Amino acid sequence: AEKDAGLRRLIPQEVRRSFIAEDHPILVIDSHESSGALLSRQLERQGYRVTIAITHPQALQALATIPYQVILLDILDNTSLQILEQIKSHEEWQHTPVLMMTAADDIENIVQGIAIGAADFISKPLHPAILHAKVAVYLEREQLRNQREALQLELDQIKRSQQAAEMIQTQYFQQLQPHHEVEKFLPLGTSPLKVLLVEDNELNCDMLSRRLQRHGYEVIVAHDGAEGVSKALSEQPHIILMDISLPIIDGWEATQKLKANPETCCIPVIALTAHAMTGDREKSLAAGCDDYDTKPIELPRLLSKLERCLKRSSAD
Predict the structure, then answer these.
(1) Is 292:270 a contact under the CB 8 Å cutoff?
(2) Distance of CA 60 to the CA centre of its chain
(3) How far, in Å, CA of 151 to CA of 26, rounded?
(4) Is it the case that residue 130 has pLDDT exceeding 60?
(5) What is the CB neighbour count within 10 angstroms for residue 198?
């Protein structure tokens, strides 16, 4: 009894509590009816729901009926290893942990069983505390595996939903604003409207460039504030989208330089920032920006602001 108490102390209390529940079905495959019944009683006293299979056909029938979270398999001979092989070759059962019950000196069967796919073995005669500890450990692993699979499935569904939403949104707004509507601010026969996008994040830059191009804009890219000022002078874009958090010089300083230069002062600038803080809009307008938008970019909103700025610019 003292030895049992010592072994029970090795099992974390939270593990003992977590897996003493009827929603953890266990299958015992034991050709000896008496030993199977004894094992079943030991597990049921811990609160587990136990099914006993005396023959291998009974085991396969039980496995086809409900999903089990742990299988205890008595290993006697090659026939026992054959049922293990059947379990591990079946798509629906192969991930269920199988604990072999065998004599500690039966090294050959233990090695073969592990090679086939058994998770572990328990030496006979079975010690109740060791039995409970191993069952609890593999139930916990099985529960964590199921949680990981469910989480991965949920993440995959979210990813597919986002991709579908992106496709729908792109097609929808292409219909709402065909190219000729975006180009209506320029005289007939002239080039597309030229947008200078100043953005240091390559992924954001590539995504926004392609979306603007699908709406008929010609997009020029600069990756820092200094390059943005230089390209504004050389390319003379119709409008500038200016990220605020830029290397070398930030977007506010770059905008101030553009607005102070007679060659670029009339080009409208829309500030783009991920920092939706109080005062950012005022700071952007004070630096000379004509409008302000926050990240993540909502394309319909940004297109609306581009349109307003271009209308004001053409009116001036």
Answers:
(1) yes
(2) 36
(3) 25
(4) yes
(5) 28
pLDDT reading at 314 higher than 70 = yes
Residue 191's alpha-carbon distances to 1, 184, 188, 219, 284, in angstroms, are: 91, 11, 9, 12, 30
Residue that wins the pLDDT comparison between 188 and 254: 254
- Residue 291 to residue 239: CA distance in whole angstroms: 11
Using alpha carbons, select from 23, 106, 22, 38 the residue that is nearest to residue 72.
38
Q: Note whether 219 and 209 are within 8 A (CB).
A: yes
* CA-based nearest residue to 85, from 50, 109, 52, 58: 109
Q: Name the one residue in this structure whose structure tokens are 């005669």.
A: 125
Nearest-10 Cα torsion for 199, 202, 208, 212: 80
In sequence order, which residues have a C-beta less than 8 Å from that of residue 175 and are 6 or more positions away? none
- Cα pseudo-dihedral 191, 196, 202, 207, rounded to 10: -50
Q: What letter represents residue 234's amino acid?
A: S
CA distance linking residue 120 with residue 84, whole number of Å: 12
SS3 29: strand
Per residue in 235-253, pLDDT (tens digit) is 999 999 999 889 999 988 9
- pLDDT at residue 273, as a whole number: 82
* CA terminus-to-terminus distance, the chain: 95
pTM of the model: 0.42
Give the separation between CA 132 and CA 17, rounded to whole angstroms.
12
